[in-house]
UniProtKB/TrEMBL annotation:
<keyword id="KW-0812">Transmembrane</keyword>
<feature type="transmembrane region" description="Helical">
    <location>
        <begin position="231"/>
        <end position="250"/>
    </location>
</feature>
<feature type="transmembrane region" description="Helical">
    <location>
        <begin position="12"/>
        <end position="33"/>
    </location>
</feature>
<protein>
    <submittedName>
        <fullName>Membrane protein</fullName>
    </submittedName>
</protein>
<feature type="transmembrane region" description="Helical">
    <location>
        <begin position="133"/>
        <end position="151"/>
    </location>
</feature>
<feature type="transmembrane region" description="Helical">
    <location>
        <begin position="99"/>
        <end position="121"/>
    </location>
</feature>
<feature type="transmembrane region" description="Helical">
    <location>
        <begin position="73"/>
        <end position="93"/>
    </location>
</feature>
<feature type="transmembrane region" description="Helical">
    <location>
        <begin position="163"/>
        <end position="184"/>
    </location>
</feature>
<dbReference type="GO" id="GO:0016020">
    <property type="term" value="C:membrane"/>
</dbReference>
<feature type="domain" description="EamA">
    <location>
        <begin position="166"/>
        <end position="301"/>
    </location>
</feature>
<dbReference type="Pfam" id="PF00892">
    <property type="entry name" value="EamA"/>
</dbReference>
<feature type="transmembrane region" description="Helical">
    <location>
        <begin position="39"/>
        <end position="61"/>
    </location>
</feature>
<dbReference type="InterPro" id="IPR050638">
    <property type="entry name" value="AA-Vitamin_Transporters"/>
</dbReference>
<dbReference type="InterPro" id="IPR037185">
    <property type="entry name" value="EmrE-like"/>
</dbReference>
<keyword id="KW-0472">Membrane</keyword>
<feature type="transmembrane region" description="Helical">
    <location>
        <begin position="196"/>
        <end position="219"/>
    </location>
</feature>
<comment type="similarity">
    <text>Belongs to the EamA transporter family.</text>
</comment>
Length: 321
């Protein structure tokens, strides 16, 4: 695998542009989802985006001479990962943005690396050292700070609503599914190039979303206009295709520890865009939670494991977004 220290390393400008694309485009997907979900039911928004994105990504791989078809067993495992990562881990997130601020949803999703660390430890995988354990504790406090305003508002006699709490719980469950799928994908070690795997996983998730939308009679409730089409177009072009391609390029040209910084930057971008574009408001405790969750993710992902292996880059959380 090429590294940034190789003689023919990538140009500095290319690296900066790739980082900027991953930071901004993935952070902005939460804004696009918030706009789109108020016009299209969540499974339609997610399913349309993923089916089109899958077709384009697989076509791109085919044109570049990549093998895209594999054995039935490999395809079945890709389908399972797609359902866990991008269906169960995504459709609830999209739906939740009808009730949660996009920045808050992004901050909740940012705990995925913490979930991954816990799952690895519980299942006998790599164990976190003291710094990582402190990061997990800080992440727990961050979640309390982030979710407390929603719980407090729901308990008010006149203004209480349980929908924010339900939405937050669904995002947490979706993040757990995404983290579980990420751990499972590491152990599967499928002989499939990353872009090809992402294409088939998006296809499986898109199909599951379409089935859900049809079974729950969601299609008559879709509002197709330039706003909804622009949201889908952004998610396909900048979220899935360009953003993920830049991520894969960085993994092959830049040290993994630097690439992993997207997990800290994306939530901040989402919060800033939520305030500037969607006019969202955050409570002081939520800003504290933002700082705490970013610090906790940094502690966990940068922690050396007891086995002596360096922590891997977090799974690309945008694919949940």
């Amino acid at each position: 695998m090429p590294s940034s220290s190789s003689h023919a390393g990538p140009a500095r400008l290319a690296v900066l542009l790739a980082f900027g694309s991953v930071y901004f485009f993935w952070g902005a997907t939460y804004t696009a989802m918030s706009i789109g979900v108020h016009l299209l039911p969540a499974p339609i928004l997610a399913g349309t985006r993923m089916l089109i994105g899958a077709a384009l990504m697989l076509l791109f791989c085919k044109l570049r001479g990549k093998k895209i078809f594999y054995s039935r067993g490999v395809m079945a495992r890709l389908g399972l990962l797609g359902v866990m990562l991008l269906f169960m881990g995504n459709v609830g997130l999209v739906w939740s943005e009808k009730y949660l601020a996009s920045g808050l949803a992004a901050l909740i999703v940012a705990i995925v690396p913490l979930y991954v660390a816990v799952i690895e430890a519980v299942t006998g995988g790599e164990q976190l050292r003291r710094r990582g354990l402190f990061g997990l504790f800080l992440g727990f406090l961050a979640l309390i700070a982030l979710l407390w305003p929603s719980f407090h508002e729901a308990l008010l006699p006149r203004h209480g609503s349980s929908m924010q709490i339900i939405a937050a719980i669904i995002v947490l469950l979706g993040a757990l599914s995404f983290a579980s799928g990420s751990v499972l994908s590491r152990h599967m070690q499928l002989p499939v190039p990353p872009l090809v795997a992402a294409g088939w996983e998006m296809g499986a998730a898109g199909l599951a979303n379409v089935v859900l939308a049809t079974a729950t009679w969601q299609w008559p409730h879709a509002t197709w206009n330039w706003h909804s089409l622009a949201a889908i177009g952004y998610l396909i072009l900048f979220g899935s295709l360009l953003g993920f391609s830049c991520y894969i390029w960085l993994i092959h040209h830049v040290p993994v520890a630097k690439v992993a910084t997207y997990a800290y930057v994306n939530p901040v971008v989402a919060v800033i865009l939520g305030v500037l574009v969607l006019h969202e408001h955050m409570q002081p405790t939520e800003y504290f939670g933002m700082v705490a969750v970013i610090a906790s993710v940094a502690l966990v992902t940068s922690s050396q494991m007891k086995s002596g292996k360096p922590a891997a880059a977090p799974a690309p959380v945008e694919n949940e977004a």
